[in-house]
Design brief:
By secondary structure, the protein is an alpha/beta fold. The protein has 13 helices and 14 strands. Strands 7-6-8-9-10-13-14 form a 7-stranded mixed sheet, with helices on both faces. The chain has a 5-stranded parallel sheet with strand order 2-1-3-4-5, sandwiched between helices. Helix 3 crosses helix 4.
């Protein structure tokens, strides 16, 4: 009888030990639009963020050897209520220490204002680019590794001017992202002598965009700028324009950059130009190589930014010596900016060791991260052109 009691007690102790070990794992939320208008882009973004988490876990150095567990949630990109509910589950039920995400600007704003900020949870978005996010009352809890569309509008205006394009029609998705970018572009384009013949919103999820295409074509512009989503209305607008010969020259912003668009439209997209955050420097090349060695396709929009977002969260934990939410927030700026030893892609173990030894780090990562006073980056943009059915980088601006 005593042996049975002892054995039972041993089982309880082992079970309790396992539960304690699980409790000590650090959970980071990964909230992206796994369904919705950019669903073809988000798998690569999530995998890139999770690569950084695996790197930190495998090092055995994060807070004395803790593991990082990514917990995915679907932002939908467009449904703020669904995104908020998903974030609430991450924060209250899953008890994540921080959030990598969200992605689209509208749902990111909703999550930040309604869930993350009230609960003191740090968010680092790799792709929310609305200029309005620069001025939210975030209490130092919201950061982004993708630059604001205030800059993308200027870059796009310069690209068109350099190519001798002076008159364009603009269509934009009817949300925070589309409106912010359309306004930024129009202001910058007019400042360099360009004309926006028409600027019209479109709704996502429609089966037919004939009316929208007709109105855009009636403006008389030869070039159509599409500030929408690669798997939704933006694609529908372009398909309608091609089918009716309304336009043959297209200009794309970051939300439209994806191979799924080329696969859907085909050769009619050759000659299309666009912009997307990113570079072609040593940091970008190093990320592509590092991702490939680890079985991740790093060549796509916002993938380097996603890796950097996750890396910064874990370095902040190490700098704080804690995965408590307030402690992470207190160290975000410190690990992203000088002073400190520069930490590149694939060097998270090095950075974690330096911090464990009481040193300082300056994380530059895949996108040459450097935060300004509100926790966002200036960033660089690739100027792209579709040639022979593929996106080709023309230059970095």
């Amino acid at each position: 009888m005593n042996k049975i009691v002892i054995a039972a007690a041993a089982v309880i102790i082992v079970a309790a030990g396992s539960a304690t070990a699980l409790a000590e794992d650090i959970k980071i939320g990964v909230i992206l639009g796994f369904t919705g208008p950019i669903e073809s882009l988000t798998p690569g973004m999530a995998q890139s963020a999770e690569l950084a988490m695996k790197e930190a876990s495998d090092s055995g150095l994060l807070l004395g050897g803790k593991q990082v567990l990514p917990v995915r949630a679907d932002s939908t990109c467009v449904d703020s209520a669904a995104a908020t509910a998903a974030a609430e589950r991450l924060i209250t039920a899953d008890r994540v220490a921080a959030i990598m995400g969200a992605d689209c600007s509208g749902v990111t704003t909703a999550i930040a204002n309604n869930v993350a900020i009230p609960n003191g949870v740090v968010m680092v978005s790799p792709s929310a680019t609305s200029p309005a996010l620069s001025t939210i009352e975030d209490k130092g809890l919201f950061y982004r590794t993708a630059p604001s569309d205030a800059r993308q509008g200027q870059v796009l205006a310069n690209v068109l001017t350099d190519r001798g394009i002076a008159n364009v029609a603009v269509t934009y998705t009817n949300n925070d992202y589309g409106k912010g970018l359309a306004e930024s572009f129009a202001s910058a384009f007019k400042a360099v002598g360009g004309t926006v013949a028409i600027s019209a919103a479109h709704e996502d999820g429609k089966a037919d965009y004939a009316a929208e295409v007709g109105a855009l074509a009636a403006s008389g512009a030869e070039h159509l700028a599409v500030f929408g989503y690669v798997d939704q209305g933006g694609k529908g607008i372009i398909q309608g324009a091609v089918d009716t010969d309304a336009f043959s020259s297209f200009i794309l912003a970051d939300g439209m950059i994806g191979d799924s668009l080329i696969n859907a439209i085909g050769d009619d997209l050759n000659g299309t130009i666009g912009t997307v955050p990113g570079g072609a420097d040593d940091a970008a090349t190093r990320f592509l190589d590092h991702a490939k060695r680890n079985g991740v396709d790093g060549d796509g929009p916002f993938r380097g930014e996603s890796y950097d977002a996750a890396a910064l969260l874990m370095l902040a934990m190490q700098a704080a010596g804690s995965s408590e939410r307030a402690d992470i927030q207190a160290k975000m700026m410190a690990v992203a900016n000088a002073p400190g030893e520069e930490i590149a892609v694939g060097e998270l173990a090095k950075g974690l060791q330096i911090l464990a030894d009481g040193g300082e780090v300056d994380y530059t990562g895949a996108t040459n991260v450097e935060f300004n006073e509100v926790g966002e980056v200036f960033g660089s943009y690739k100027e792209l052109e579709i040639k022979n059915g593929e996106f080709e980088t023309i230059r970095v601006r």
